[in-house]
Amino acid sequence: MIASRLFPPSRGRDGAGVVFAAGAAVVGAIFAVALALPQALPLLLAVLAGLGLLVLGFLQPIPFTLAWLLAAGATPEMWFGNPTQAEGLIVGLVKLTGLVLAVLAALRYGVVADLFNPGFAFLAMFAVGLAGGLHPNLTLADSLRSLAGSVAPFAFGFVRAPRSWCDAVIAMVIRLPALVVLGGLGLDLAGVHALFGEAAGLRLAGMGHPAFLAGFALAGVYAALVELFRDGRGRDLAWLGANLLILALTGARAPLMLAPAVVALALLFLPARRFDALARLPLLLAAGLLLPLLAVVAGKLTSIRLFNVLSDDPEGLSGRDLIWPLFQDAWAERPWTGWGVGAGKTLVDPDSLIAHLLGTTTAHNEYLRIGVDGGWLGLGLLGLFMAGWVWRHGTRLAQSDKAILYLVFMAFAVHSFTDSTLIATTGCVLFAWVAAVFARGAQVQAAA
Directed axis angle between helix 366-394 and helix 119-132, to 10°? Predict the structure, then answer.
């Protein structure tokens, strides 16, 4: 039953005959070339394997999309220890795979005119950057790659996805943090990657980095909360609690501040016929008892990151404020139009002292990064498209879905001050879930 829910059959347009005919023609052409040029056979076989995957992805978008979400959550770029050159390549492949899957799903199911899709803001920033001149450290090829990576998280917004795709994606996003923790346990036992990292205390890392696991857990909290208010099922409440626990063990401060805030506001103020006040009362009472308990034990369990920061550095920025001036200065040099999409990735030398000190070359502040890439114009466009996106699709959603999505986007705006919420693969997972909620709302409205 679980497999049938996660991997339901595709119900899109029946283009299988055309696809198989085209595939047979391509296979015939490849082998004809291989007979004439035997030395090209390995390359041709690789091309054939890629084409086969594309055909399978077209015929069964749902399992391929779920596998992609799991790959994004696994963060294999983090298995190599310190950042390497392979890290950027792996992240780029994950985002490119999501973009390709969105195109295949659109071909399979159909396309919608998502006029407020935030991807358009990045296209505008790219065009303005080319017109004004790219940053000296930024090549056109690098800017194009950054454009593709920036657009990829929002690509599923153009897909006329059926209800089966939406339900499967939502279910996977809810369960993804637990799957990542289980996978991390396996990697730890195999000696590949530690389940817990140490940075100012123990932090649950799963298969990658605690901050990334926190991003996936945050999306899982939001997804479980929406389903809880829609259906009032006990299992959604259990998943909500599990994702909150995973989030707490990561010790990520901003997500751990935002998730309880969204949950508390929803519990206190949002009506839901299937999740009434009587069902919420035990949760609110438990939360009221838990907060004083956390305050008491915070000073006793400083080996755990969560309690360490609560006791010693609740408002610290973990060195982010050391790297921000570099982005502020670059933004000030071209304040209105910025330096082109991807310029923010080129400001900090990976071999510099500050990069080794912080372990990163990113700003961990999307407002500064977008300011460098697109200036005030790009930042304003992205904000307008984000607001228009959730407002336009919110008109089709159930009341509780819409209210929680509004809270989620406001929390995302706050979170973007201290984390890489758009550039990281956590954004791919979050916005794939958002696209699934939007598409489900359109399906329900059409059926009504």
Answer: 140
